[in-house]
Q: What sequence folds into this?
């Protein structure tokens, strides 16, 4: 069974302690702080719709999706800490791409970007068509090209963070 990790952006400019955080050895100015909370999609159940947060997940930020696909080293790396967030002091740019991993779990399945878990039939009915058809408890995927149909050819593998 493939494990799922969901990502939730909390906000910017909040300082927390980290286990680790690097940007090729230095931080460039002006800087801002990005905080990412990682949630375990496998902790969802019909009787427990709260999704557990994850400690020890590795969050990597990249300048571009091609940097990820070419196995270039990430610009920044952090690990979710005891407060269950990865807090990363970054050079202020308009956007970064990121991946999240913990063991065999990652924030994509077969190249599709996960954005949540279906908790009700109403959520399924209100979402873009997914192939195969989802059931309650299935991952929600992001319709990256906006055509209303989510199929494996949607190859947006990595989530984009936009800083404002």
A:
């Amino acid at each position: 069974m493939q494990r799922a990790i969901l990502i939730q952006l909390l906000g910017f400019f909040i300082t927390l302690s980290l286990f680790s955080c690097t940007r090729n050895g230095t931080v460039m100015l002006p800087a801002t702080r990005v905080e990412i909370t990682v949630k375990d999609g496998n902790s969802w159940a019909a009787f427990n719709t709260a999704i557990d947060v994850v400690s020890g997940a590795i969050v990597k930020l990249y300048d571009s999706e091609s940097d990820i696909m070419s196995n270039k080293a990430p610009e920044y790396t952090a690990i979710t800490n005891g407060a269950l967030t990865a807090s990363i002091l970054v050079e202020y740019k308009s956007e970064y791409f990121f991946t999240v991993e913990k063991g065999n779990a990652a924030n994509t399945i077969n190249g599709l970007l996960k954005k949540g878990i279906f908790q009700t039939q109403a959520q399924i009915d209100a979402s873009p068509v997914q192939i195969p058809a989802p059931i309650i408890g299935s991952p929600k995927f992001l319709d990256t090209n906006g055509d209303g149909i989510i199929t494996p050819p949607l190859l947006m593998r990595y989530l984009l963070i936009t800083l404002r």
In short: The longest helix spans residues 121-126. The CA atoms of residues 107 and 154 lie 15 Å apart.
